[in-house]
Amino acid sequence: MELPLAALLLLSVVGKTTFVRFEIETSRARLLLKWLIVVGLTLGLHRVVGNASVAVPLLSGGAGALFHVIWCRRHGIHPIDATPRDRYYELRGWTKGNEWAPIDSPSA
Known about the structure:
The chain contains 4 helices and no strands. By secondary structure, the protein is an all-alpha fold. It is about 65% helix and about 0% strand.
């Protein structure tokens, strides 16, 4: 069970660190559901196929990254920097604002 958990941890840390700027306004419920599906499939398959279940987070992360790069390039967005930010927000249907503001910032 250690290998699948290590793969999930690695995917989580690398994925969130690299792609956080692309998920600024994504709902917490959607992000949580995504992780519950990946973790559930990985750990559920571990009982059936053993350590081969590591393929689930690695392949899904790889497929997601590939789709991300293709989508960004097609729309003129830098796939790592998420720039130009205004264009990216427009494509996602998000509001413009301070994307690095604290989540629980006090109202002025």
